[in-house]
Amino acid sequence: MKIFNNTFLLRLAVAIILFMHSVPGMFNNGVNTFGTLYLDQIGFAPFGIFLAWTIKLSHLVAALCLLFGKYVKLTSLVTILVLITGIILIHFKEGWYVVGGGRNGVEFNFLLIFALLAIMFPNGLKKAA
């Protein structure tokens, strides 16, 4: 995959989003907090911090892969699985809206999943088969 192909702008946007969703938490204790105060509490103890770091590092790796056009399908698939898990564990109970009609809902993850699918299958599903 060439770096500057027809999916570059979308890959760039998703890479920036994944980067910004992962890196700040690595430096402000957000990842550890998510691991101990959320993941451990919902039954993942004693692996909450490990899982939180794995999730955030997967976002960072995916951002770099998307940016440079390497391992795009694999990292997109892993990220989609993480996003679906986030919907199930966190966002679904909050409803659809992230802001406006609600808070912390599924709409942003939904959009990211379909953006990643569009990156994975730039010619649509018909050509992918």
Automatic annotation (TrEMBL):
Alphabetically list the UniProt keywords: Cell membrane, Membrane, Transmembrane, Transmembrane helix
Q: Which InterPro entries match?
A: DoxX, DoxX-like_oxidoreductase
> Topology in the membrane?
Multi-pass membrane protein
UniProt superkingdom: Bacteria
By what name is this protein known? Answer: DoxX family protein
Q: Answer whether the UniProt record assigns the keyword Zinc-finger to this protein.
A: no
- Write out the similarity annotation: Belongs to the DoxX family.
User: GO CC terms on record?
Assistant: plasma membrane
Which source organism does the UniProt entry give? Flavobacterium rhamnosiphilum
Report the subcellular localization: Cell membrane
Transmembrane stretches in the record are: 7-27, 47-67, 74-92, 108-125
In Pfam terms, one family for this protein is: DoxX
- Where does it primarily localize? membrane
